[in-house]
Amino acid sequence: MKRFSILTLTLILFLTMSFVGLNSTEVAAQEDLEFTLLAHSSAIAFWRPVQQGMEDAAEQLGVSVNFTGPAEMDHGQQVAMIENQISAGVDGIGTTITDPSAYNNIVQEALDEGIPVVAFNADAEGNPRMAYIGQAPDTAGAAMGERIAELVGEGGSIVFLNEDPGHTDLEARTRGAQEVLDEYNISYESIDTTTDLSTAVSTIMDYYSGNPDIDGWFGVSATATEAAGLAVEQLDLAGEVYAGGFDLTPTTLEAIQDGYAQFTMDQHPYLQGYYTVHALYLYHKYAIDPVDIDTGGGIVDQSNVNDVIDLSADGYR
Q: What is the pTM of this model?
């Protein structure tokens, strides 16, 4: 995953903080810019803080921003939606890129029309987008693998839960975790849980009926992680089977709080929406090309979940 210099980030943060003090009505009188952010599986709860960050940035800068995307991951539909935005003449596009090649041509088309494109949340190597704003999935996956190893121990057995098989970042998270688990001789397999929460829970429960010796199940995506904790609760397996995964949805945080899940990986989705809008704005306002920003993240568990849960309910975490 690409990195950028501390100096570059410092410049971006300086400019960003400078905008906070601007009167949005005064900026709006100067600017007439419209941006669109498109996300895969847009119906899931994960995107709420992304939208909050996007809206906060738009208010500060006096620009107009729309959020859209297919309800479930559908590359063809998302490409068509980007095409519509190009035809509508928007001033900038942020999009998730969840396939190694499906978005290459449409992103290049936008760039050829003079529309800047920034990838956020999910990226694919080789795509011509101008920059990527989001977590480094392989690094985050490795951190997840270390936490799993601490829980299940040498020689354990776990299953990965993936709601969107083939999704570039979810596969990278899984690979990052697997490399760590191999060092501890922990066996693993992956199952498709879909983006429907009830289907995901029943899929996990069905899996457990045939694999009662499993030590834990861990999502590499938001809905799958929610389902992990719910399955432990419904099967009454707290203290017997570990659960965890990615993202800070209220359901996952409640599961950690109640002891049905042990941890979740944060990727700061608020920043993904916030910085994407700023990157597109800076390109138009000051001819500053967007740069990669790793939104980082950390682990939320019993030690800090109470500090995060209220902010999650408000749409910031």
A: 0.83
